[in-house]
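Quick one:
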Amino acid sequence: MSAQEQLSFLEPVDEKEVRKAVVKALKEYKALRDAVQNKQERQEKGIDQLFPRLQKSESTNELKARQIERALQYSLDEIERQIIEEKYLSTSRVKDINVYLDMGLTKDQYYTKKKDAIKQIATALGMI
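Output:
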């Protein structure tokens, strides 16, 4: 069986849906990362809970944060990671043009790297 025939068995992936899911996970990651740090801080101070807990999802949140952190750390090259961090993990809203100009990339290089990074994150997180 040729490689082309093997690839034809894979279901096509809607890149827009993948990007949407990854961006949502990255935005959630910012809050999850803070929640994990806040929990560690409370534990160090011997405090169980400062605010009312409305959901029992603490262990799930920690697992999500660790898995996203691992995906960012090990699935991306340096340029891809910098693009993701500047575009999705910064505290301010950043336009693509500002990111690729700051990084010294062409528009095509930037969008290729960004697309590859999103695909790598989706793969690492088991989305695709």
